[in-house]
Amino acid sequence: MTIFLVIAIVGQYVEAQGDYLQTKIIPPSPTAAALGAYGDIPIGYYTGTPNISIPLFEINTGSYSLPISLSYNASSVRVAEDASWVGLGWSLNAGGVITRSIRGLDDLNSYKGYYYLPALPLNDVENYYGGNWNHIIDFERYATDLSYRQYVETNLESFDPTDSNFFMEVNLGLVDAEPDIYYYNFAGYTGSFVMGKLADGSPIIMPEKNNLKFEYIPVGSVSLGKWKVTAPDGTIFYFNTTELTEGYVSHTDLPESDLKGLTKFQNTYNDLSVSSWYLDKIEPVKGSGIEFNYASNSKSLGLVNRQQTRYDRIPTSDNDPALLNYFDLSRQVIYHQNLSSIEFENGKITFLTGTRNDIQGLWSTNLPQKLESIQVYNKKNQLLKAFELGHDYFNSVATNGINTYASLRLKLNSVTEYGKSGYPFYKSDPYIFTYYNPNGLPTKYSRKVDSWGYYNPGIPDVYIENETYPTQLPAVNTSGRSFVGVDRKADETGKYSRSGMLETITYPTKGSTKFIYEPNRRAISPPDSYTVNNTIGYAFSDDQGEKQLTDPFTLSSTTTVKFHLYTLATYGSPIPETQILGYIKNSSNQILGSFTTSSPDATLSLASGSYYVEVDLGNLNDGDYDVQLYAYTESTEYRDYEIVGGNRIKEIKNYDTDGQEVAYKKFIYTENGYESGAATGFGGGFTKQHETRGVYFHEDDPFTSGQQFPSFWGDYLYVPYSTTSELYLVRKSNPIYTLGLGGQSGSIGYKNVYVLEGGDGSGGLTKYSYYSSSISSPINPFYFYIPGLPIYRDPIIGKLKSVEFLNSDRQFLKREEYVYQEVESERDIVKGLKIFSDRGSYPGLHLHQDYESIKFYDNVSKWYVLGSKIVTEDLGGDNIVTVQNYDYENPDHFQLTKTGILDSKGDNIESKTIYPSDIPDKFSLQGGTLTDLEFGAVQDLISQNRIVPIQTESYKNSVLLSRQRTLYKDWGSGLVLPKEVQTSKGTGTLKTQVVFHKYDGYGNLQEISKVNGPHTVYIWGYNGQYPIAKIENVASYGSISSSLIDAVVTASNSDYSESSENSLRTALENLRNSLPDAMVTTYTYDPLVGVTSICDSKGVKSSYAYDNFNRLRFVKDETNKLLQENRYHYKN
Prior knowledge:
Layout lengths: L1 H16 L25 E2 L4 E12 L4 E9 L16 E4 L2 E6 L37 H6 L1 H9 L6 H11 L9 E6 L2 E7 L8 E2 L7 E5 L8 E5 L5 E15 L15 E18 L6 E6 L3 E3 L3 E9 L10 E12 L2 E7 L2 E9 L13 E10 L4 E12 L9 H4 L1 E10 L12 E5 L40 E3 L2 E3 L18 E5 L5 E30 L5 E2 L1 E6 L3 E11 L12 E5 L4 E5 L5 E6 L2 E7 L9 E31 L5 E8 L12 E2 L7 E11 L7 E3 L5 E3 L1 E13 L5 E2 L9 E2 L1 E6 L7 E6 L19 E2 L8 E7 L5 E11 L5 E8 L9 E4 L5 E8 L2 E12 L2 E10 L10 E5 L5 E7 L17 H12 L7 E6 L2 E12 L5 E10 L5 E9 L5 E6 L4 E7 L4 E9 L7 H12 L4 H16 L5 E8 L3 E6 L5 E6 L5 E6 L4 E4 L7
Parallel strand pairs: 41-45
Antiparallel strand pairs: 1-2, 2-3, 3-4, 5-6, 5-12, 6-7, 7-8, 9-10, 10-11, 11-12, 11-16, 12-13, 13-17, 14-16, 15-16, 15-40, 17-18, 18-19, 19-20, 20-21, 21-22, 22-25, 23-24, 25-26, 26-27, 26-34, 28-33, 29-32, 29-34, 30-31, 30-33, 34-35, 35-43, 36-42, 37-40, 37-49, 38-39, 43-44, 44-46, 46-47, ...
């Protein structure tokens, strides 16, 4: 990310200047379609994930571009994962969405949601309750102690009933104390945030601050509001279309056969909640907008989420039943919104769907949909191109007859492009996708799931007494007791966890890319020790008649050897316990030990020499019994890593059309760049599933059980008669800690990643290093976790720390280091509150938690800035160091304001950039005062969230070299655009160099000139999207005949055929002839395809023709002579 920061600075500067660089206005001549880009897959090195994308189309509205593509998430397939409407792992990047994860209750419920409720109670520095705990009513005592109850009601002013009631209502699930987490993905922006309380101004808290401006706008029912998001260039995104979900629950551990519908589930509160807001409109500062339409014609059942929670009392015997043991199964009815079309000035894109078989619909109609085709049309509804998606299903040859929805997952096999002529027959060769073990995925409800959610069939079936199905609770040894559970470790081979992952892409050119994965690993410090069994002797006679009755082995020194006899009676009578079935003998045939079913194990210290193990079935029949005798030694080994869930990319290989390897990259995630080196993985989520806690145990008085006593708040409580404090083991089948704000990036990361070109490094190596821990003061040094409390993850984690380039001999060439710092004064926090409690649902039993179970937590927004970049290069044996320092002086825009480069000669070259919010008044800019109108335009830029450079300055060793200022003006209808560019050298006076005289209603520049120079006029057509004439050396726009301008504009707006284009050419020629002293260049277009003709200022014409796939085919001159021809020859 940090590398791109510098690139973004340059890009932003160019964009700001682009309005008056005349060459930026005229489109470049068409070029042939690029064939060499296939296989150039960018990698997210920190997570070891390739960024795989299939480009489809790009919408251009003049000043704004929206690319349409498919992308693949190569981070492994989770067991409980449904496929998107594109296919498992695939996403359509076309519009945008804001989704959310509801914590507690719906924030936007106006009666009980976090957003609308008053402030939380006070908290202290340790995030415990900050009020006087003695003023909180003890509900248990209130219910059991009559004198205490009378004291409370008599001295109510001594207590805090507001906080008391709030804690009680949170504990009962009546009000919300936690802000929901929102996730956004649109137009290249991705991230998350929480929204603070309405009473506090609805602050938006992101893990790391940025320049997006989010506004929530309630509409009608306040929970069905909409979002308005303004980008830093002033583009506005509206999210109005809502997708709803309705929750259902069950408290029984159901078999898979009962998970097909809702018959075993109950509606929670009959509430509908908004789960997603979809992008409806993009409104750029200049040009026309883009609108998105949706079809809400399908409903489906979401996957069942299953969780078990169990309380076991620790100080008692192993046979005690759990105090509490309950199951929570939840699922949602989803009211889908499917993108149906995108409409823009010169065309539209439609998205056609069909029904799918891997997700269950709510009824027999309005079934869930899959995306089948994408079609691009121009404004006259003429088809320009189409893409068809070919599908079938994972596990299509071996479905689960009990619940096919649980077995099947939609699989994207191909993407085929169709041309504008002869659809659907004229098509290109497709993209073809293959996957690892496509019929080997488990059902979505398999219990063979590791702690990270991935498949591992090696996880054993372990049953806890009195439970029907295999448990997913962890095995725990504590306080001298062993609690039965299962070790849900990850698949160490990766064979099963990579099932369903993308293996190859074959491109339309017939070239291909192959992806090889390996399991994720994270470092262990200190290393774990483990025992390895090394078999040295093995004799057997199996139940298939195969046998090896003796097996010799030799010891070179005195060795401790262990023996184990394995027996199984497949047929016939049981084996007598006293019958000897195996021996250990020395080279003299002396028996050193014998083995029976009652004594199957032995440990002997054997001197150096020769020995053998022997199996003797005696009077047992061959083939009826399986008898195996092992001799083995044990050794202790140490491992500095462990396998964690999911996979990382190991190798990427590219092949040409003949199947020959043309590029090979290998990725190594160790400290030293060799596969044997120490692992550098860290994180991998918080998978702890148990905790021991002291809780109060209450038992009802058998004489008063069930009696109800009124409390002062109007409810009733049962009266228990005794209280004891005990220690309990609390276990959950899911992690007891949840991921907090920014935690969606909590997957495993790697501190060091080596990229070897050529696989063996023959093409050189690149080492990427990343931040793996916080570099600033802790959020809360007293942070104490209770079950359910969200885990904080610092946004510095995963940022690029350095890049080092090595040659094929691993010799140093160059290193770039990135040094970050936090601006702690800009740290913002929104509080949440969590109460750890159970529902106390068993008759006669109640649990009450102490004050430590009421815990506040922080949702934190930080601002990290790149403080410096240090570049070290080896130039002929000498290391040359260049230091670039960066300053960010204004948190109102978070932009880089000053760059300083200290070169090897000791010179300090600085550049300074001033943005609208850096200008508090019209007198503050160095170099001259702004007029009231000019300062008013600056204020307008701030209100539109347009973070554009107003002034730039260059210095060398603190001496001003030059200054450049762009003055803006409100041209009407909210179009605030440049009017002048001024420059100066040194401390000289700013002088106007370029003047912008006129814009059209779309914000397109129509007239520009240098000071006292001839004017250049641009005429825009095709509904304001393309320049159709560039007229140089004219007095002004007004000096040109308005009727001739109107004629060419009108003709362009109707140009959708060869005859209409001829009419446009005639109108353009009339315009040219009316301006004999001007230099006129004219353009015609096939909208959404490209320029079709250019006639330069000398009247020389070039024509451009395109093939059925809108690729440049011919270039001809005015005599129809062929100047250039492109032929697209793909293999076969």
